[in-house]
Please model this.
Amino acid sequence: MSESQTDRPRFGRLGKRPLAVYGVLAIGVTTLLLLLVVIYFTASEQDAPPPVCTTIDISQAETAILNGEVARVTVVYDDEEQTPTSPRFGPVQARIEYTSNQCAYLPQGVSARSGIYAMLGLVDFYNSNIEGQSVAIAYQRGAELPVALFQTPTLPPTPTNPPTETPMPTSTQLPATPVPTREPTTPRVSPEAIGTPASPIPATPIRSG
Model:
C-alpha cells in the first residue's frame, strides 16, 4: 500500500467504527430516556391517592350537569332480578364524576330514588339537545348491598300538645241599682175640692099635746 493511500482520510468512520453505529446508539439512548419518562409519570399517577368524593344534593348535581361540569354518572342497583313492584327495584346509589377528575355522591337509599330518576331524565335531555358534549351513564349491579338502603325511613311522630280547656264564661251578677226614695209630701187640697160646708139641719120643734 502506497503512502498516499495510507494518509487518505476515511469518510463515514469515527475511529475504527462507522458513523452509522453511533447513530443507532444515539437513537436507542433517546428512546430509552423517553420510555423512562413515561414510566415515571405513569407510576406517579398510580401512586396518587384516589380523589375523596363529597356529598351533594340533587339540585347541586343538576346545576353541575347544566354547566357542563359532569363527565359521567354511575348508578348502582340491586344485583338480583326484581319486578318493578318490588321495593328492591330501582337505583339506590348514584355517583357523578366531574370533568376535573373529582367526584361526588348523591343521597342514597329508596327514599332518594325519585331524585335519581329526575337526574337521569335531565342527563338524557341534556345529551339529546347539547351538541359536542354529553354525560356518560353507567349502570352497575351491586351485590350484597346494605339492607339499610332498602328500608324506608320512619319519621318520628310529631309531638302534639295536650288540648287546653277553655274556661266557660261565668255570669256575673250586676249590682242592684238602688231605687231612689222620695220624701213624703203633704197632699194639697184645693178649696174647690173641699167645697162649701153643709148647713146644719134645723131642729124641728116638738109640739106638746
About this structure: The first helix runs from residue 3 to 6.
